[in-house]
Amino acid sequence: MKSLPIVLSGPSSVMCCAPLVREPLSAAAATELARRVKAIADPTRLRLLSLVAASDGAVCMCDLIEPVGLSQPTVSHHLKILVEGGLLDRDKRGVWAYYSLVPGALDSLSAVLSTQPAGA
């Protein structure tokens, strides 16, 4: 069985692999992809990810509480999962944490799940 290469992309080292329709995933690639898919498999986390992705720069966690209507600890928990999933970067500034989208994170997810051949 042929294993898929894991490619490191950018300063955050987001892992990606060939589209699912081209080759079967290796065990390691499947584990990594499942971790990222689980991170976005929640409506609140999808909303938080979209709020951060739509911003021009890093977003203070304090600015994410009201839009999702949840308590600070709950929002913090969801953001932690997105960071662990390799989708967001966290930068601590004083008492607040600021979040930004990991460059290429959504593109790498999209490429793996795409049914289009590379370069199409």
Keywords:
single chain, about 120 residues, alpha+beta, Arc Repressor Mutant, subunit A, 3-stranded antiparallel β-sheet, two-stranded antiparallel sheet, 5 helices, 5 strands
Secondary structure elements and pairings:
Layout: E1 7-9, E2 14-16, H1 27-40, H2 43-53, E3 59-60, H3 65-68, H4 72-84, E4 88-93, E5 96-101, H5 105-113
Antiparallel strand pairs: 1-2, 3-5, 4-5
Helix pairs in contact: 1-4, 2-4
Main sheet strand line-up: 3-5-4
At CATH level 2, the architecture is: Orthogonal Bundle
Multimeric state of these chains?
single chain
In CATH terms, the superfamily is Winged helix-like DNA-binding domain superfamily/Winged helix DNA-binding domain
Query: Regions with pLDDT < 50 over 5+ consecutive residues?
Result: 1-15
Structural class: alpha+beta
Order of secondary-structure elements: EEHHEHHEEH
Q: What gap, in angstroms, lies between the N and C termini?
A: 26 Å
- Total beta strand runs: 5
H/I helix tally: 5
Helical percentage: 40-55%
Report the CATH topology name.
Arc Repressor Mutant, subunit A
Overall 3D form = elongated
Largest sheet: 3 strands, antiparallel
- How much of the sequence lies in strands comes to 15-25%
Q: Please tell me the total number of domains.
A: 1
**CATH top-level class:** Mainly Alpha
Structural Rg: 15 Å
Mean pLDDT: 82
